[in-house]
Structure to design on (96 residues):
């Protein structure tokens, strides 16, 4: 049985620019084999992320994200993600 939580915030500092932070943590909990509950290793995996995105139009967004993932004990993994998001189809201004 495990439990976890996360907290995040995004701030729009200019009309088309946003920055955000996210922190995640997992409590390893207990191992439950029916009548034999065992304590899990005393390790609490966590992950911290920082993102910056820019919206060149209302239909697209470019996001750069950096994350430090410590989900495995003794190993810290850095992750960089570059993402392009595009919206297609009908919306309030056009029915197509």
């Amino acid at each position: 049985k495990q439990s976890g939580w996360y907290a995040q915030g995004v701030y729009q500092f200019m009309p088309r620019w946003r920055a955000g932070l996210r922190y995640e943590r997992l409590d390893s909990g207990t191992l439950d084999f029916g009548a034999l509950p065992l304590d899990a290793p005393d390790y609490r995996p966590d992950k911290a992320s920082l993102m910056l995105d820019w919206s060149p139009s209302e239909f697209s967004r470019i996001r750069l994200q950096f994350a430090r993932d410590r989900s495995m004990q003794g190993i810290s993994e850095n992750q960089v993600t570059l993402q392009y998001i595009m919206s297609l189809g009908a919306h309030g201004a056009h029915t197509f």
